[in-house]
Amino acid sequence: MNSRIVLLNLTSMFLVSALVMAASAQTRIMGVDVGNKFRYSVAASWSSDDPNATAPPYIVDYKNTEWVEVSVTAVSGTNITGNFTQRLWNETERTVETWVDVDAGNGSLLLFFISANLTAGDTLYDSSSYSTRLINGTVPRTYLGGERDTNYLNVTSHDGTNTTGSLYWDKLTGVLVDQFTENTYQTGNSTYSWSVEFQIISSDLWVVPEFSTWTPALLLLIALTSATIIVARQRARIRTP
Fold first, then answer.
1. For 168-227, what is each residue's pLDDT tens digit?
2. In this structure, is residue 104 part of a structural domain?
3. What are phi and psi of 232, to 5 degrees?
4. Nearest to 77 by CA among 126, 37, 28
5. What is the DSSP letter of 53?
6. What number of other Cβ atoms are within 10 A of residue 231's Cβ?
7. Is residue 17 one of the residues assigned to a domain?
8. What is the span of the domain harbouring residue 114?
9. How many domains, the chain?
10. Statement: the pTM of the whole predicted model exceeds 0.90
11. N or C: at which end does the chain have fewer Cβ atoms within 10 angstroms?
């Protein structure tokens, strides 16, 4: 199994029922630029009361994954092109070139990027599969040491498989920061369940917490410490014959 299949599975997880309501077309805004990188931790689980059952290959692939990273290589119109790298726990890596149109909702990077600055009731994409998937709202959440406004979408389906999940995107950039899916289904007398979670763990856009999250006391402590070090060094030079 390669990274492209992993991407397709992540996309297909959320082709399920969601809140549907009237929504007008939105202007799509690109929130990322060439060179931006976004790395995610990956967690997966699978269980069954059938002693002969085995986990699906894509779940096994997720469980063998240490992290995945998307690096933006081109931005044109509403299209984002990037390299998708999957790092396995055995220290091997797989990289494929991928893309997404954040307006039409095409490409294998779907869900990793949406338009920036969407609000509640805006459509996720304008494709037929996603035009009824609407942003539920905006909430503050903390990622990479800083609090950010995040757009979220909750999904649920009971069509043969009980599926629940949630996705969060940084509002200012449209970048996926967190997603969780849990599925349960029954075949005969056996029950099967699995879950997958992606969560952002690093990005060149958010290297350190924004200064707005630093308290005045912490900034004062840093300044006093730096001044003390400078004075001590100057005194040491004076004492040296």
1. 999 999 999 999 999 998 888 899 999 999 999 999 987 544 444 444 554 455 556 655
2. yes
3. -60, -40
4. 28
5. -
6. 10
7. yes
8. 3-207
9. 1
10. no
11. C
